[in-house]
Amino acid sequence: MPRPCHPGDPLTLLRDEHLAAAFDHAARSYDTLVAANPGYHAHLRRSARRLGLPRGGEGLRVLDLGCGTGASTGALAEVLPSADITAVDASAGMLERAAAKTWPPNVTFTHAPAERLAEAGVTGPFDAVFAAYLFRNVTDPDAVLRTVHGLLAPGGRLAVHEYTLGGRRTDRAVWTLVCRGVVQPVATLLGDGDLYRHLWRSDVGFDTADRFADRLRANGFTSVRRLPLPGWQTGITHTFTGRRPTRTETAR
Questions:
Q1: pTM of the model
Q2: For residue 128, how far is the Cα from the chain centroid?
């Protein structure tokens, strides 16, 4: 397990309200930084398509868990234009940026941590949950997965788009090179160095891709698949898909 550290330490992991506050501060420049990441938005759309929902999401409810400034929400709205999309984030600053953009009426935003959705009035059943860059940043990913499982309708689908290293030395080396050579210097100039040091460490200290797939199965998801993404993020970022079993499957 990663050791606890003090802010400014290169191994710092921010959690809960400290992480939300760091994202609040970074919200003003977040879109600019991700726009410099080749394939960022295309990869989110690819993961949204991997939910495999029919008819553009017509008549379906979809939860975007950890929506940030709305990049994942935009991917869902493009791939599933007819779905009822509820986007949620723990950072008020990020959510304010997201909600200020132009959205169709079927997209709504709610301020809530993933651990306290019910308190904010976010209730199921949802036909699908999409979570991008979320699970390595929560204190108890198993508890959040259990919450997601409970929010899904029987047969409902989950897609997780996440930095999870594939296990090769080159995967960690490329991730570290990009973070330390490009992202962290720019973020430090913007006053957000602690957050982006956290984001590097949160990946190298989190599950490998195989372990995260096993975590999904251990929390009740079936038909779990680990799918790679192209470009420089191959072996670094993956889509994971799974389902909540139907009542018939559970009864077997």
A1: 0.89
A2: 14
